[in-house]
Amino acid sequence: MQRPRPAAPRDPHGVDGGRFHTSSIGDGEVLGALRLPERFVLFLGALAHRRNVPMLAEATARLRVPLVLAGLPCPGDERVLRAIERYPHVRALGAVPGGLVAPLMRAASVLALPSEHEGFGMPVVEAMACGTPVVVSDRGALPEVAGGAARVLPDLSAGGLTRALAEVLDDASCAAGLRALGLARAASFTWEGAARRHLDVFRAVAD
């Protein structure tokens, strides 16, 4: 497991600690109507083709673990939903209200984002703040955002993703380590810090 990097990404963001935290008080009532499985992998975001949701469906099928999708296809990417229709273990919730996002993250065993490219990847940090282990690809900004606190996937294939998810799902010590690293990593993403870093850029440009 990689050690976390001390610095935040060059494009700083903050996490709303009032929403994204580890306390699950009230989550059962909020999520009750969804009747979620006790253990599941969560994908949260638009179901864009570059995010490899069908690959994630295949990997979770191999592991026989439910996959919960919270998000809608981007324009022209309805084919993503067609590609996962054959997987009965996949539960597509569609777009979910903002109040459900953090409870979903806390309920998930793992949040996975096997994307070909991300400019940032805010769900990664938000899941970490909720104490949820994270698996991401090594593409785009994701490794930098993860900062050593996620299971980073260099082999972006169904087999590679299956192995990465299995490490987290089947190894309690691995999952616990990622939770601890993720909480520490998420704590470095504050809006105050983001504002200071942006101000430094504006001052540098003005000089």
From TrEMBL:
Keyword Transferase in record: yes
Gene Ontology MF, one: glycosyltransferase activity
GO biological process: lipopolysaccharide biosynthetic process
Bias (Basic and acidic residues): 8-19
Name of the protein in question: Glycosyltransferase
Keywords assigned: Transferase
Annotated organism of origin: Actinomadura harenae
Region Disordered, annotated ranges: 1-20
Gene3D superfamilies registered for this protein in UniProt: Glycogen Phosphorylase B
Pfam family, one: Glyco_trans_1_4
